Amino acid sequence: MSYRVVEWSTGTVGRHAIAGIDARDDLELVGVWVSNPEKVGKDAGELAGLGRELGVTATDDKAALLALKPDCIVHTAMTDDRIFDAIEDLISFLEAGINVVSSGPVLLQYPIGVVPDELVDRIRRAGEQGGASLHVNGIDPGFANDVLPLAMTSLSQRIDQVRCSEIADYSTYYQPVVMSEIFGFGKPVEETPMLFQPGVLSLAWGSVVRQIAAGLDLTLDEPLVEKFERIPAEEDLDILSCHIAKGTAAAVRFEVAGTVDGVPRVVLEHVTRTHPEQKPDWPKPTRGDGCYRIDITGEPMMTVEFNHHGEHGDHNVSGMIVTAMRLVNSVHAVVEAKPGLVTAVDLPLVTGRGLCASHP
């Protein structure tokens, strides 16, 4: 069965989502939403950089797109700086009877214990009333720290700790707001940016810790434990998103831990550099400029390191592709799921079915 899809946003993730939708014979792109007035009226193929037209023009008219009554919206709009406004958008899609796969807000990956119960109930009711489902995922939070680690635990005899790490050089990552205002790169080290205000790390990545804990039937201590360390640049750096002056924040290592009786059992860790030679004593990928690593301590001891890079680009390019494709490839499963809020553990195995046949 083919499903009709609207792509919501054509930024760093959305452009790859358009390419992914076009690559699947069982999905039909019927509409594209853009926030930039300069993109209105442009063909989706142009916005995605495909070098050909798809016959679908972009619009900023939300009502017109909802009136198309698509089976699903692939929502990849920036949400980090407008979390609750974005949630209202998602609820409005559900109320209109439209299924949604979304890259954010990431706290909805597994919102139980992360956001107020009243908000979770409201999202569920909207889905049930509209007969539609919402699934928030991607790569991180997403596949790299929900499906992958939970699948690995199926091999365990005893589990002492599950640690999910992202270890990456963000110098070629283009998200100025995220890099400057949220992470605080290029800002004075003595200033605490948004991400490292008390409770924000647990809001952003607590969903990862809580979903793994739920999958392992763990009751965590409250609150989750947050740690971070930031270091200054040893020299001026110009990265894709911003300028980092010598002495300003240039790298960070943080973690969010779920403990049981004070013992860390589920840990989400990020090691984020803006130059590969920063902090050589911090964890580094065994190959390439970035990886996701799963370490399961127990019996047996297990480690999986997941590397990716673009065919014609680096790991930050492919990071946008895998985020987009985790959503696009989940459309069928989400449309066919029970209405409401669905997490990774609620879905059947999601694969890239049909994509080999479409390769030239």
Structural description of this entry:
- It holds the Pfam family DAP_DH_C.
- Keywords: NADP, Oxidoreductase.
- The structure is a single chain.
- Helix content is 27%, strand content 25%.
- It has ten helices and 15 strands.
- The strands form three sheets. Strands 3-2-1-4-5-6-15 form a seven-stranded parallel beta sheet, with helices on both faces.
- The mean pLDDT is 95.
Strand content: 25-35%
Q: What's the pLDDT, averaged over the residues?
A: 95
N- and C-termini, Cα separation: 23 Å
Quaternary structure annotation:
single chain
Report the helical percentage.
25-40%
User: Count of helices?
Assistant: 10
The CATH class of the largest domain, by name, is Alpha Beta
Question: If classified by CATH, what would the architecture of the largest domain be?
Answer: 2-Layer Sandwich
What letter string, H or E per element, gives the SSE order?
Answer: EHEHEHEHEHEHEHHEEEEEEEHHE
